[in-house]
DNA sequence: TGAAATGTTGGGGCG
DNA sequence: ACGCCCCAACATTTC
């Protein structure tokens, strides 16, 4: 005898029909289960660009989810509305007993879910939410003193110590798929087109949805053993490229973490262990955001809110456009602008350059990444920026300032990544391409690459900028 | 998940 | 043969 006659599963950042905590629970506990996705105007209307790769990715993923649900006898009810209104209204129209969703740890989502929960409760409906997007959430990993961790390494050790096979158990949808109910005819409107949502196609290269996620996971499984040694070189295929799937839930974190963990215990499993670490970083930052929501607008460590950034708008614009005169930084920013992706090593280099060479507030860079990254996730993006800016928990020390030339020589030694995204430098030799302004004018003429004509003169001098950054940090340092 | 400044060492040139 | 200097090469410290 099911607990509920009818229930509604609200899909958000979990766009899949397998190993899905809320969906599985709803099917287990209900006689009839409906499914909804809302293109939330509260989110879409805030996007600065009407051609947004994420919206296209979500649209494609929602379309696939709808098709898979229809094949299972159901379907996805899709709305373009304020989610906080649309979900309770739909619950009323369907007269469901409960709405099921997965936890979201971002402050805006928490507020939205609280409002939805209240509206549902006012009509006697339950709002049931579940852990789904992480292996460990909120208070599940705490210090011996019962406090959240603020340093990664002990967090990771506690995370691994707490892990049991049960944490990888699948939230099985298949076993209860009989409860999937067809969309009532009156509510069965066609999926809105991208254009109807107010967005233009972007020519997204990324295959969306569970299909894309499964392809990327399958591909990465073959490369995971090389991950540790390959991941730092942006010109080669080292990363998993699963970050967007993790953001929108087109893959299951449990399946990914289970594979990585099992593989990490094998001989030669160091690559998998290194990647598992990255998954744990993701959960570390999710947990930081949950416990310290002030990081959204402020430095984790309040004394760093007093940093006197220069915030030169022209230099910031040059950073955004990829015209700083530092090839590795410009290649990184152009990769982001052209594809919506940036290699993680380059995220660190670009962030370090913005904060510690241009002396621009890390929040400006964070916002730019938030607008551009296909895989943008508030917790991870904020954590990464605060790490690079040395303002965060367990951040890199403020005096650790990347030299963009050294980093370029070390991680793009042949300049092949630079040539891909900064083609005007392609004619320079491998040892010339990292600091083209240092090449004698005769060399520039021979190569047909004149700095100041074909490519910008560096907008700052790194050695000088480094000194200024150290002074900026010294001014707020507690003695 | 650095880089630069500073210190130390030791080989070789040279008077 | 010896001391002195230079300066890589490496190590340590400092930011």
Report on this model:
By secondary structure, this protein is of the alpha/beta class. The protein folds into three domains: 1-131, Rossmann fold (3-Layer(aba) Sandwich), CATH 3.40.50.620; 133-169 and 211-291, Alpha Horseshoe (Serine Threonine Protein Phosphatase 5, Tetratricopeptide repeat); 302-474, DNA Cyclobutane Dipyrimidine Photolyase, subunit A, domain 3 (Orthogonal Bundle). It is 46% helix and 7% strand. The protein contains 20 helices and five strands. A five-stranded parallel beta sheet has the order 3-2-1-4-5, sandwiched between helices. The longest helix has 22 residues, at 270-291. 46% of the residues are buried. It binds a DNA duplex (15 and 15 nucleotides) through residues 232, 344-345, 348, 352, 387, 396-403, 406-407, 463, 466, 470, 473-474.
Percent strand equals: 5-15%
Task: Compute the number of helices.
Answer: 20
Question: Structural class given helices, strands, pairing?
Answer: alpha/beta
The name of the CATH superfamily of the largest domain reads DNA Cyclobutane Dipyrimidine Photolyase, subunit A, domain 3
Could you tell me the number of beta strands? 5
Q: Low-confidence parts lasting 5 or more residues at pLDDT below 50? A: none
Mean pLDDT across every amino acid position: 97
Shape: globular
Strand order of the largest sheet: 3-2-1-4-5
Give the N-to-C terminal Cα separation.
Answer: 66 Å
> How many separate domains?
3
The CATH top-level class label of the largest domain: Mainly Alpha
- Examine the secondary-structure arrangement and name the CATH architecture of the largest domain: Orthogonal Bundle
Helix content: 40-55%
Kindly report the CATH topology of the largest domain. DNA Cyclobutane Dipyrimidine Photolyase, subunit A, domain 3
N-to-C series of helices and strands: EHEHHEHEHEHHHHHHHHHHHHHHH
Main sheet overview: 5 strands, parallel
Rg result = 24 Å
